[in-house]
């Protein structure tokens, strides 16, 4: 008989705290995110209404090398703050790491060394009642012992087993030491619980992987005996029978199973290699096959958290929690992933599973996971807070987490549409099986400016991001006509409006009355009508509101002083918009270029060099080139986060127009010597131009570097359907 667990579903939280090792280089997520240096982050976590925090007391951070005196300064200070905050910690001792210098996952002494450290931690903090000595042991063993990504960089099954055995023996001995100090301490054992599907020919391999995924829990529970499906395999790869018997003699069933699931954890194996690119080809000693994300090929999609929770419930019948719910993606997809995880937990509870909590993970974001921590490129994916600012900026995930913790129904409009993993565009390869997709009715974003570069770009990006939209032409919505605006807003009933319309010809603006009508009057009317209806608004301004005299990058608080009519109209539009709508988002940007139109500087340079052999550009005017897909993606994230006021969005970089042209030529393997730099005065422009309008931000530097943007421009222009999700390669 199914029944609900008695207590409500809890919200837990955790910062991504991995300390990983590649070669002799350690990568510390707490340092990279700034969590290590901000005591006030504990208050941020507590403000969510979470009951527990997965908190790092990591071995490598306390003891850099074996034999060193432990340094408890950071842990002492932070755990005291945690204790007073009301959050109950789940102490983590090893998170995808291999211990301090002087030991490793293949060191026979590793289990005893970890247990010794665990005892030290427990004796210092005896009030901590829940522990994860080793995070995701099987996953870590695969990445460190089988795939070679992390130290000790093994690439064989014997090394994989040595890593896993030592992690799990270390867990047993660590919990024994902890319980000597704190009887009744809970083991919250986490694991990334993937699932593998396959074509019939490869079902045997999928069956093997679907049994192997349980090894963390099965070994700890003393289940791996001679009758266990993995026994013969483990013995075949060199597992000592005495080691296997040790786990049977020293069972440590987890008190709470920590179930983690990611889109990439669900795999599909296909022997039809011709359907897939070579980079996903692999195999075993018997068959060659492609190994891809199941969501990209399975018609029925992925199982996700609900399927994994119910499988674990059927196998163990133990209390469970989702211990990591995080997706590195655009903001609406992050919201949808967390929302889906919460509902998966609730659904599993309705079917009788004892699911205690859902953990919002990577509270302050994560670094370098796009390369599985193997490269140092500065790649960052935000979490609940975005740390690319003077202080962490709360994203829409904070609001969602608080609503979930309070038991409220989440209210963000983007949750009315399914995540990308449930839409048809998820499929990158010929579908295996009948395709099923979720279809929901959701309110749209209204985008003005259907004939312009920015409006069309919003339509493309909204399509990719699964954000319903209505793109309007002037004959449907004239932003400078109040009645037209009222009619469109009342008809479309958008949850947000993006004003991508406006007069853009800088030199013509000196004498064309349409400049003020479209840029000032239209902006003011649209803002007023949106404000009356409580509709969030995004509108665009320009770097030309500045006179260029500062000589350093302009930030949002710098005083505008436009030199030309276009700049004056944009400044007037800023003031009118914010006066009419105090929660409007005004984005200043600069020097568009993009892959989807022919009317931008990069396309002009390429065409001129190929057709005429020369480009003339200003050598004395410095700007921040802005890649349109990056601009649109960042704008949508800020809109979803309910940001307002003035924001600067331009790619990180500063180039003269002439240098911009030279870099473009070099990237295209054209002759950059054909770019002739001249003074702006020689170009005979009607409107005066400032000499320096580089934009930066004091609110958050969320745009990628210009070099990355230009690289992606050339990649995207080569592709029939450019992918603009995600900023940096």
UniProtKB/TrEMBL annotation:
SUPFAM superfamilies: (Trans)glycosidases, NAD(P)-binding Rossmann-fold domains. It is an enzyme of class 1 (oxidoreductase). GO terms for biological process: carbohydrate metabolic process; dTDP-rhamnose biosynthetic process. InterPro entries: dTDP_dehydrorham_reduct, GH, Glyco_hydro_1, NAD(P)-bd_dom_sf, RmlD-like-bd. Signal peptide: none annotated. It comes from the Bacteria. One of its GO terms (molecular function) is dTDP-4-dehydrorhamnose reductase activity. Transmembrane segments: none annotated. Pathway: Carbohydrate biosynthesis; dTDP-L-rhamnose biosynthesis. Its EC number is 1.1.1.133. Residues 445-699 form the RmlD-like substrate binding domain. Keywords: NADP, Oxidoreductase. Belongs to the dTDP-4-dehydrorhamnose reductase family. PANTHER family: DTDP-4-DEHYDRORHAMNOSE REDUCTASE, METHIONINE ADENOSYLTRANSFERASE 2 SUBUNIT BETA. Catalyzes the reduction of dTDP-6-deoxy-L-lyxo-4-hexulose to yield dTDP-L-rhamnose. This is dTDP-4-dehydrorhamnose reductase. It comes from Deinococcus yavapaiensis KR-236. The lineage of its organism: Bacteria, Thermotogati, Deinococcota, Deinococci, Deinococcales.
């Amino acid at each position: 008989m199914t029944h609900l667990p008695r207590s409500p579903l809890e919200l837990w939280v955790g910062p991504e705290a991995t300390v990983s090792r590649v070669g002799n280089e350690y990568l510390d997520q707490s340092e990279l995110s700034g969590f290590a240096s901000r005591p006030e982050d504990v208050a941020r976590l507590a403000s969510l209404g979470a009951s527990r925090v997965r908190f790092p007391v990591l071995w490598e951070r306390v003891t850099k090398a074996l034999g060193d005196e432990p340094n408890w300064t950071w842990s002492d200070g932070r755990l005291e703050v945690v204790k007073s905050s009301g959050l109950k910690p789940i102490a983590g001792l090893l998170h995808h790491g291999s211990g301090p210098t002087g030991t490793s996952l293949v060191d026979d002494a590793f289990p005893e060394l970890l247990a010794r450290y665990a005892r030290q931690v427990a004796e210092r903090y005896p009030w901590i009642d829940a522990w994860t000595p080793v995070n995701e042991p099987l996953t870590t063993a695969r990445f460190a012992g089988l795939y070679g990504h992390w130290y000790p960089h093994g690439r064989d099954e014997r090394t994989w087993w040595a890593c896993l055995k030592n992690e799990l023996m270390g867990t047993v001995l660590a919990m024994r030491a902890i319980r000597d100090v704190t009887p009744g301490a809970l083991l919250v054992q986490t694991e990334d619980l993937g699932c593998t599907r396959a074509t019939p020919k490869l079902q045997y391999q999928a069956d093997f992987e679907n049994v192997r995924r349980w090894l963390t829990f099965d070994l700890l529970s003393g289940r791996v005996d001679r009758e266990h499906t993995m026994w013969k395999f483990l013995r075949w790869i060199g597992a000592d029978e005495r080691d296997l018997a040790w786990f049977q003699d020293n069972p440590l069933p987890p008190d709470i199973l920590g179930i983690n699931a990611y889109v990439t954890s669900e795999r599909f194996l296909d022997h039809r290699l011709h359907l897939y690119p070579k980079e996903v080809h692999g195999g075993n000693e018997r068959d060659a096959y492609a190994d891809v994300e199941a969501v990209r090929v399975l018609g029925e999609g992925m199982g996700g958290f609900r399927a994994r929770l119910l499988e674990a419930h059927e196998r163990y019948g133990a209390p469970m929690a989702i211990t990591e719910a995080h997706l590195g993606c655009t903001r609406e997809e992050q919201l949808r992933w967390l929302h889906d995880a919460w509902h998966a937990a609730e659904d599993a509870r309705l079917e009788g599973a004892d699911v205690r909590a859902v953990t919002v993970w990577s509270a302050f974001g994560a670094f370098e996971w796009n390369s599985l921590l193997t490269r140092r490129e500065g790649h960052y994916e935000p979490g609940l807070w975005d740390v690319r600012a003077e202080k962490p900026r709360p994203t829409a995930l904070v609001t969602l987490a608080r609503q979930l913790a309070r038991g409220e129904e989440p209210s963000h409009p983007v949750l009315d549409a399914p995540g990308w993993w449930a839409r048809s565009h998820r499929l990158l390869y010929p579908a295996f099986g009948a395709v099923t997709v979720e279809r929901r009715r959701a309110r749209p974003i209204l985008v003005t400016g259907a004939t312009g570069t920015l409006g069309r770009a919003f339509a493309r990006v909204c399509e990719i991001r699964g954000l319903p939209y209505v793109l309007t032409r002037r004959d449907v919505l004239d932003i400078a006509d109040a009645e037209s605006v009222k009619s469109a807003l009342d008809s479309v009933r958008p949850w947000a409006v993006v004003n991508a319309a406006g007069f853009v010809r800088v030199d013509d603006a000196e004498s064309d009355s349409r400049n003020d009508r479209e840029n000032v009057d239209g902006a003011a009317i649209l803002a007023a009508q949106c404000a009356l209806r409580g509709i969030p608004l995004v509108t665009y301004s320009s770097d030309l509101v500045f006179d260029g005299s500062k000589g350093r990058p302009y930030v949002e608080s710098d005083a505008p002083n436009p030199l030309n009519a276009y700049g004056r109209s944009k400044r007037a539009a800023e003031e009118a918009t914010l006066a009419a709508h105090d929660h409007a988002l005004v984005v200043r940007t600069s020097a568009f270029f993009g892959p989807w139109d022919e009317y931008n500087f990069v396309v002009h340079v390429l065409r001129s060099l190929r057709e005429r052999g020369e480009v003339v550009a200003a050598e004395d005017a410095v700007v921040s080139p802005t890649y349109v897909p990056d601009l649109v993606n960042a704008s949508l994230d800020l809109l979803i986060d309910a940001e307002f006021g003035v924001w600067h969005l331009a790619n990180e970089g500063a180039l003269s127009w002439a240098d911009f042209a030279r870099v473009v030529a070099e990237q295209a393997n054209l002759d950059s010597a054909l770019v002739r730099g001249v003074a702006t005065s020689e170009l005979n422009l009607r409107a005066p131009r400032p000499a320096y309008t580089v934009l930066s931000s004091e609110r958050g530097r969320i745009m990628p570097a210009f070099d990355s943007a230009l690289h992606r421009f050339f990649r995207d222009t080569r592709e029939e359907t450019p992918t603009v999700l995600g900023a940096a390669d």
